[in-house]
Request: fold
Amino acid sequence: MLLPDPEQHVALWRRQLGLLLERGRHTHAVLMEAAQEQGRAEATGARLSALARAAKTQVDDLASILEPALGGALPAKGDGLPRGVVEYIGYLYRDWGWPALGYSENEPALAELGRLLGARELGRMLAFGAGACGLAYELHLRHRASETVALDIDPYLLVIGEHVVRGERVPLTETSLKWIDGREVCRQWGLEASGHGLSSPGKSLAHRKFS
Reply:
């Protein structure tokens, strides 16, 4: 890792994972308690219960990938909300979930880069701050990079993004407080690349390397 003290940085993110698990358990318990409160309207109770289940599922989805990658969670220090998830989790849905429904926020940036590059191939590319890796992945494919190395300081995005670009389909729940109907408080996304994972045998670009 290109950091002055990589072990300390990994420990920081392990504590962030511990905070995520702690806040997830707390949120689930509070919502379930509120849902079962005496005199609560049936529809309100159902919505709160659905939110509780969705929050737990979202945390479980993240932890199932991050715990083995980081070496497990450490006890959280202090209160607050976990970095990564709260601030940037939307980038995972944006890059690997929403395009299936026709929402492509990266397209304007890709079009402008395509205009600047013209017919040139990228060759070897280094992407700093690659985040969920969607932009770097599309550049790699569209401009025929021979090798792309994607770097980011945030494992919440990079670790999950790596699973996707290696050809996996990653389940990740998106929870929303905006919906009134209890049946619509969350959506289960299958995060996946656009039909051509880079490690899959037989793919036309499988010989090109994305790391």
About this structure: The first helix runs from residue 6 to 35. The helical segments are 6-35, 42-70, 85-88, 90-96, 107-117, 134-142, 155-165. The first strand starts at residue 123 and ends at 127.
